[in-house]
Design goal:
Distance between the termini of chain A: 81 Å
Shape of chain B: elongated
Distance between the termini of chain B: 32 Å
Oligomer: heterodimer
Strand content of chain A: 25-35%
Structural class of chain B: mainly alpha
Structural class of chain A: alpha+beta
Radius of gyration of chain B: 21 Å
Number of helices of chain A: 2
Radius of gyration of chain A: 31 Å
Number of strands of chain B: 0
Number of strands of chain A: 11
Strand content of chain B: under 5%
Largest interface: A-B, 29 and 38 residues
Chain lengths: 170, 97
Amino acid sequence: MKGDLRLAVQRSRANRWGREFPYRHGEDELATRRTFLRFTVYTSGMVFASTGVLTALNAVTPPARGEERVIEGASQVPVGGALYFNYPGPDDQAVLLRREEGFVAYGMKCTHLSCAVYHQPERGRLYCPCHEGVFDPATGEPVAGPPRRRLAQIELRQDGDRLIAVREVR
Amino acid sequence: MRPLDRERDVATYVEPHVQGPREDRATPGHRAIVLMLVALGGLLLGLQLWLLSAVHDLFLAGEGRFLWAAFLISGLIFLGGVAALRVLGRQEEREGR
């Protein structure tokens, strides 16, 4: 008796749900496997085209840029110090580090989201304050934080007392 | 589900497989193979997306060595999908569906 009552209550609730949210099974449209396959192939075509665009861009983009330019004031940088300068373009920031082994220079654009990277001599690192990315000043390789690629390296050449930036290599 | 809905569903989706023409009566084994191929297509699309992300990363890093290989693999997957669509389309035409 009690079970019948519970069943009646459940049916009543189910009917109410059906009244408030009617669903016509016969009018439902099913996606066929063929439709799914067609959609998959179209998506595959778009992904292929995007891959092609990146490959073509890589083919036409030169791997290195910049022309030879003297870095003014490089000889006055103490060992362990840094000099900020612009290279290869007038709006591109770069940092020159004087280490015991010699000079190294990197583009200051973080390889994560392009924030400016700063030299922190007291901690011996290149630091990006946006997302706490850290780079090794000896090699430019990322050592902590979200960046996964090394900093753009600037090739240097010593010409007597003058230090010359030759080109920037990604 | 109301009895009327159930009857309509049975008439729409079940009966064609039981009483319909021979080519519509897919056996359970045949259905499993088709589903496996559809799943394989989905997996290959996933592989293509992964290749695209790898290509993007390599492009930003300025390392173009593997870009052409990734491009070719992606193209082969796409062509495979196009070929599968054409084969199925021809089969459909041949069976007059």
